[in-house]
């Protein structure tokens, strides 16, 4: 087997992984710093018989992706802050209607137009709660270019398996940074595929175990003739405003992801077993954080590192267990404390959680985190 | 009558529309047009947005997609481009298509994507109980235009034509035979086709404007219209203020998804190594 080794940027790695996972449909709208993904899809998808369309805005983009996914096509869009905000209503639609879909959000500084070419991590909470109503969502955060590839592929696996929109939260630095990626040989991995029904007779589009089950998804145009609606619906897909129907639907939908939170937990951990201070960071901030943690260790400080790759559902039990030895927790992130809120919730009762927020469009420098570590100890 | 019931999900009836509403008339015309054309039910996807008219899809026995407000055409664009072999029909209202969804409407027309859009225009937001829409005529009343609408309404057919739609027609719920015929022609047209169906909302538009009940509102619509063929023979002063009905625009122009498929074929021909790729892995099941 000949492994293909390529130097590529994060946005490129996301695109390559999506195509490897069987991406068949991309709809998007130009926005910095995510545009390379759209450009590359426009060039690469026709080669494999897939479709690319540049829509009139981000609302149209995600809407077109949902339409395509309903026909059985694996669909993806990519965007950044302002476009991600525009997509929120449709993300709720996809969550409720259980439409597999991958959204790459290459974060930039906000709110509003902000600083379009500078990195940030301000969409942590928007990824979770940007749409109205309680809803299931999965968000993954790569910490380097290699992980852009791995986690985008994983996003398709999870999205197809659980019928849920999956957000890949990268940022301007991860998106544009170039690193080595070893591309897997086609045929060496399993293409993610949603479970489909075998027979239209008696098909109930939303019939599933009420305790978080995933219904079988029939593609449009194959004789199943089912109804997909953003209204609350019963297992037949019929709109309903009956409290009993709403309750069953909402519980199943949310348990679908909540019940699996710790199975979905993917993370990097180092030196937590005996640490006095745990540093929790993700994405490009974690690169500086890890460098600072290792320097602190080499200078004799008992410091450990936890980097969640699964941000949502938040791996509460995992965090509680792994961070148990820490007397203090330091959370460097390029926002004013969004991940820190979850860390406080999960592990903050027993120990202080120190926020190290940065929102000026600059990356953390390892020295900056190192100084904060020393101060925290 | 009974044979058309097979196009409906009978367990979802009766419908939610008010007595005298025109939505049922337009839905009936669509079903009869599909029946007349002898289309395979399994190859039709009907997409709608939000509003009274958009509830039609819930009753129809096709693959149906009831989307978010204003986005029906964008969802439909995804369905059609992913599976060009499917007939994609959008049912939308005047608020859904001309206000919140206006951008998707003009861009689908510009692309000339093969989608048939039926706009049920009742001049008002019915579902939210009578607010003025972009199709409420100047000076008329709505619950958000209590002193008379100071805005002007679109001519949706002119808008569609200017934006690039290749088939544009208008009928009313009064001119039922014409409506059914134009819907059938629109469905068979290759490209972005639009049928504006002027329809009565006696509950909100008719009552608020003191036009009367369902029949009065229907007559109010009828009296404003003139067939495009009849209008051609009239002097301009007799056509003044009249709304044209009939086939208003029909041209041939290369369709979007067909052109995209040609791009795929060309790219794969130019790259023999890609041609060995039998399409996107895992997606053969439903590919064209």
Automatic annotation (TrEMBL), chain B:
Domain (Thiamine pyrophosphate enzyme TPP-binding): residue spans on this chain: 50-196
Tell me, what is an example of a GO biological process annotation in this record? small molecule metabolic process
Q: Which residues form the signal peptide?
A: none
Alphabetized, the UniProt keywords read: Oxidoreductase
Q: Which GO terms describe its molecular function?
A: 2-oxoglutarate synthase activity; thiamine pyrophosphate binding
The EC code for this enzyme is 1.2.7.3
Q: Which InterPro entries match?
A: 2-oxoacid:Fd_oxidoreductase, THDP-binding, TPP_enzyme_TPP-bd
Q: What is this protein called?
A: 2-oxoglutarate synthase subunit KorB
């Amino acid at each position: 087997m000949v492994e293909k080794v390529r130097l590529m940027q994060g946005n490129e790695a996301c695109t390559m992984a999506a195509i490897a996972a069987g991406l068949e449909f991309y709809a998007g709208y130009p926005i910095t710093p995510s545009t390379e993904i759209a450009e590359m899809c426009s060039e690469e998808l026709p080669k494999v018989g897939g479709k690319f369309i540049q829509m009139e805005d981000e609302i149209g983009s995600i809407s077109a992706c949902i339409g395509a996914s309903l026909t059985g096509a694996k669909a993806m869009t990519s965007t950044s802050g302002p476009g991600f905000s525009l997509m929120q209503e449709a993300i709720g639609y996809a969550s409720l209607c259980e439409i597999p879909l991958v959204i790459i959000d290459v974060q930039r500084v906000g709110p509003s137009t902000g600083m379009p070419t500078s990195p940030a991590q301000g969409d942590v909470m928007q990824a979770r709660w940007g749409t109205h109503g309680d809803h299931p969502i999965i968000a993954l955060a790569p910490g380097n270019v290699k992980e852009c590839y791995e986690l985008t592929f994983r996003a398709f696996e999870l999205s197809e398996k659980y019928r849920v929109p999956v957000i890949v939260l990268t940022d301007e630095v991860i998106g544009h940074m170039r690193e080595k990626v070893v591309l897997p040989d086609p045929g060496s991995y399993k293409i993610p595929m949603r479970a489909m029904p075998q027979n239209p007779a008696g098909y109930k589009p939303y019939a599933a175990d009420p305790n978080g089950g995933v219904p079988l998804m029939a593609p449009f145009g194959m004789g199943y003739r089912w109804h997909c609606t953003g209204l609350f619906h019963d297992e037949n897909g019929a709109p309903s405003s009956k409290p009993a129907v709403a309750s069953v639907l909402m519980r199943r939908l949310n348990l679908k992801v909540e019940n699996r939170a710790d199975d979905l937990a993917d993370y990097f951990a180092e030196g937590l077993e005996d640490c006095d201070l745990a540093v929790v960071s993700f994405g490009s901030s974690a690169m500086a954080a890890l460098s600072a943690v290792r320097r602190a260790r080499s200078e004799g400080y008992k410091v450990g590192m936890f980097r969640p790759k699964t941000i949502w559902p938040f791996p509460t039990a995992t965090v509680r267990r792994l961070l148990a030895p820490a007397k203090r927790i330091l959370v460097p992130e390029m926002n004013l404390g969004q991940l820190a809120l979850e860390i406080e919730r999960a592990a903050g009762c027993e120990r202080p959680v120190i926020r190290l927020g940065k929102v000026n469009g600059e990356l953390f420098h390892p020295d900056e985190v190192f100084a904060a570590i020393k101060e925290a100890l | 009558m009974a044979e058309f019931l097979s196009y409906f999900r009978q367990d979802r009836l009766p419908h939610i529309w008010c007595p005298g509403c025109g939505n049922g008339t337009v839905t009936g015309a669509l079903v009869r047009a599909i029946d007349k054309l002898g289309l395979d039910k399994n190859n039709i996807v009907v997409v709608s947005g939000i509003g009274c008219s958009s509830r039609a899809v819930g009753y129809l026995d096709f693959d149906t997609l009831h989307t978010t407000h204003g986005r029906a055409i964008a969802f439909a664009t995804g369905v059609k481009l992913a599976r060009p072999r499917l007939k994609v029909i959008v049912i939308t209202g005047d608020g859904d298509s001309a206000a919140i969804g206006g951008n998707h409407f003009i861009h689908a027309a510009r692309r000339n994507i093969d989608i048939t859009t039926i706009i049920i225009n009742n001049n008002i937001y019915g579902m939210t109980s009578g607010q003025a829409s972009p199709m409420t005529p100047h000076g008329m009343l709505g619950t958000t235009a209590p002193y008379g609408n100071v805005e002007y309404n679109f001519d949706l057919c002119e808008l569609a034509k200017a934006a690039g739609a290749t088939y544009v027609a208008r009928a009313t719920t009064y001119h039922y035979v014409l409506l059914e015929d134009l819907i059938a022609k629109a469905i068979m047209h290759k490209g972005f086709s639009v049928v504006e169906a002027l329809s009565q909302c006696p509950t909100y538009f008719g009552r608020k404007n003191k036009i009367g009940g369902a029949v009065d509102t229907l007559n109010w619509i009828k009296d404003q219209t003139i067939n495009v063929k009849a209008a051609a023979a009239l002097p301009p002063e007799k056509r003044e203020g009249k709304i044209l009905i009939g086939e208003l625009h029909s041209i041939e122009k290369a369709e979007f998804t067909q052109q995209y498929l040609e791009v795929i074929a060309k790219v794969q021909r130019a790259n023999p190594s890609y041609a060995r790729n039998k399409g996107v892995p895992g997606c053969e099941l439903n590919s064209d």
